[in-house]
Amino acid sequence: SSRPGLAHSATAVAHPNIALIKYWGKSDERLFLPRTDSLSMTLDIFPTTTRVRLAPEAGQDTVTFNGRPATGEAERRIIAFLELVRERAGRAERADVDTENTVPTGAGLASSASGFAALAVAAAAAYGLELDAAGLSRLARRGSGSASRSIFGDFAVWHAGRTDGTPEEADLSSYAEPVRTAPLDPALVIAVVNAGPKEVSSRTAMRRTMDTSPLFEPWALSSKGDLADMRAALGRGDLPAVGEIAERNALGMHATMLAARPAVRYLSPATLTVLDSVLALRRDGVPAYATMDAGPNVKVLCRRADADRVAETVRAAAPGGAVHIAGPGPGARLLAE
Ligand code: 2P0
């Protein structure tokens, strides 16, 4: 509502994204500046819907997550994000945040990406902060790096930003934007081999990898080449090339973690069983390629027309786990209240 005297409120919805060129490692932890550029596909499943309602009488923020009060680190991060929005908007009122998340939290299924993208769009609107899409992406980045990409639908690239200037210059130049592609008709088949929360947070794992892994810098360097190759493959609509590049980039990222001291290993026996089934699909002539994030679950990129067959195959490889089929989804947006 924009009626004076009444609490302002805004509701936004955003979807998770899966990186085909990974974000792993920060050059600035406070500003969420990534060490490398990354590129992702936003999904059409697992939306997060978030309402931010200003509460001028309240002495503190309240955060409700799937109907329950948020606690601990999740609550702390959301309140820190509201502080940032208030600072930028020159406002002081506290807020009630109510968020409904349909994705398993903390399992490497990108719940923080949809979560902070929806929060950025809703909070900016509620506090009267007028931002274009790049500005919203920069803002969402401060909640969780990968959220910068969920502002956009389909494929998005997140720029690491300038590294030769001040932190402010880097901050201004690190945001996501859409990537043009030739028609691909892709699907991501998501094999949930374990929906529980991860043992090591992305933040901790990234920091340890950068600080201790001798493979980190070589991967960061090779990721630049992967991104250039990926843009070209997307531009010509070459799904097998897109998949091959995504798979090698993800395996390289996991190699950097395996070489950290102590090692960070998100991949489980069930993960490797699914990876074997993806190789078997390729041997049978089905273009299917795997990517894994900060957890044991596997996302298989394939053609939409092959998605049911791919889903059957990975379901047989990892019995008991849920399998979801996602297509390219929309960017974050405000809902009419
Ligand atoms: C990505 N991941 O590009 C990479 C690949 C996981 C593996 O972004 O610390 O939740 O909040 O910026 O975005 C997961 O890390 O980390 C992630 P923060 P985020 O999707």
State the low-pLDDT regions, or none: 1-7
The total of helices stands at 10
> Which series of helices and strands comes N to C?
EEEEEEEEHEHHHEHEEHHHHEEHEE
Work out the radius of gyration: 20 Å
CATH architecture of the largest domain: 2-Layer Sandwich
Oligomer: single chain
Number of strands: 16
- What is the residue-mean pLDDT, rounded to a whole number? 94
Backbone structural class: alpha+beta
CATH domain class of the largest domain: Alpha Beta
Largest sheet: 6 strands, mixed
Number of domains: 2
N- and C-termini, Cα separation: 8 Å
Portion of residues in helices?
A: 25-40%
Overall geometric form = globular
Q: Examine the coordinates and then state which fold CATH places here, giving the name of the CATH topology of the largest domain.
A: Ribosomal Protein S5, domain 2
**Strand share of the residues?**
15-25%
Spell out which ligands are present: ligand 2P0
Tell me the strand order in the biggest sheet.
8-7-9-6-1-16
Short description:
The protein has helices at about 70-90, 110-125, 135-140, 145-150, 165-175, 200-210, 215-235, 240-260, 270-285, 305-315; strands at about 10-15, 15-20, 25-30, 35, 40, 50-55, 60-65, 70, 95-100, 155-160, 175-180, 185-190, 290, 300-305, 320-325, 335.
Give an account of the 3D structure:
The structure is a single chain. With 337 residues, the protein is of the alpha+beta class. The protein has 2 domains: 172 residues, Ribosomal Protein S5, domain 2, CATH 3.30.230.10; 141 residues, Alpha-Beta Plaits (2-Layer Sandwich), CATH 3.30.70. 39% of the residues lie in helices and 23% in strands. The protein has 10 helices and 16 strands. Strands 8-7-9-6-1-16 form a 6-stranded mixed beta sheet. Strands 2-5-10-11 form a 4-stranded antiparallel beta sheet. α1 runs parallel beside α2 and α7 packs antiparallel against α8. The longest helix has 20 residues. It is globular. The N terminus is likely disordered. The structure holds ligand 2P0. Ligand 2P0 binds next to α6. One of its GO terms (molecular function) is diphosphomevalonate decarboxylase activity. It holds the Pfam family MDD_C. InterPro entries: GHMP_kinase_C_sf (IPR036554), Mev_decarb (IPR005935), Mev_diP_decarb (IPR029765), MVD-like_N (IPR053859), Mvd1_C (IPR041431), Ribosomal_Su5_D2-typ_SF (IPR020568), Ribsml_uS5_D2-typ_fold_subgr (IPR014721).
